[in-house]
Design goal:
mainly beta; five-stranded antiparallel β-sheet; 1 helix; globular
């Protein structure tokens, strides 16, 4: 996987707009974007906008990860 930050215009604390990460497969295919915000994570598969992405709040993400 290749993951890069689209815009690094953030301070130490993530603000309302959040940080958007580009996610690529090892062969360079764009898989989607991961948006990290104060309220949770949004996965935007392919060219999906964050408004249409799949959202998960932090508490649900933490519970899911701890169950793995």
């Amino acid at each position: 996987m290749k993951v890069s930050i689209k815009d690094f215009a953030v301070t130490m604390e993530i603000k309302n707009k959040g940080v958007e990460l580009d996610v690529y497969s090892t062969d360079g295919t764009h898989l989607g974007d991961l948006v990290v915000t104060k309220t949770g994570l949004t996965w935007c598969k392919g060219k999906t906008t964050s408004a249409n992405g799949k959202k998960i709040p932090w508490d649900a993400f933490i519970t899911y990860m701890q169950s793995q």
